[in-house]
């Protein structure tokens, strides 16, 4: 009989102990679940608080670079319009040496595209040594000649309305006039200026002195938009 009592007493201890263990283990499991539940939340909050920056495609632009003729590290020649040379249109090619008048003569300059009314820049520094008319009787289409004895070049810019005077000193890149439309004389042609580079009395291909370079522009960060 004592053994039976002892057995019942042992079972009374075993049952509460099992229940307590279950409670303790369940609480630990719950704590584990709660602890793990905070980790994704922290990541989510960090993602919300930190701005998301999208990757952007690199941007490039064409820059026209003039030759350094005197070796001082600075360009001595500049693109007068900042645009590309004229390619083929209904009136032919704008390249140096292109055929003119059915092959009877060669094009003595390079045509640089532009639009009527834009400022035309001095292709070299120097003195204004001549102002004249591009065609006899065409008083609206003039040219300016700038001579720079230091580098041994002269430059003539055609189809402009000059805003400089004979004998005036000009700096490379300074405005020398306004580009005039050629549509009245050559309907359908691409408006441009005609640039002649002259050394020792001989015309020189301006594209050998003014070259295009592809440069990368600074990146502009773009913030991701919330959906």
Helix-strand layout with pairing:
Elements: H1 2-49, E1 53-54, E2 60-66, E3 99-100, E4 105-106, E5 110-113, E6 119-121, E7 126-133, E8 142-148, E9 153-162, E10 169-170, E11 175-179, E12 192-199, E13 202-204, E14 210-216, E15 222-223
Low-confidence stretches: 3-11, 18-25, 28-33
- Rg: 40 Å
**How does the helix and strand content classify structurally?**
alpha+beta
The share of residues in extended strands comes to 25-35%
Q: What is the overall pLDDT average?
A: 84
Shape: elongated
Topology as a string of helices (H) and strands (E): HEEEEEEEEEEEEEEE
Number of DSSP-assigned strands: 15
Q: What composes the largest sheet?
A: 9 strands, antiparallel
- Helix content range of the residues, please? 10-25%
What is the end-to-end distance?
Answer: 77 Å
The number of helical elements comes to 1
Structure description:
The chain is an alpha+beta fold. It has one helix and 15 strands. A hairpin with a 4-residue loop joins strand 3 (99-100) and strand 4. The longest helix is centred in the first third of the chain and has 48 residues, at 2-49. The model is unreliable at 3-11, 18-25 and 28-33 (pLDDT under 50).
In short:
The protein is of the alpha+beta class and 227 residues long. It contains one helix and 15 strands; from the N terminus they run αβββββββββββββββ.
Supply the key terms.
1 helix, 227 residues, 21% helix
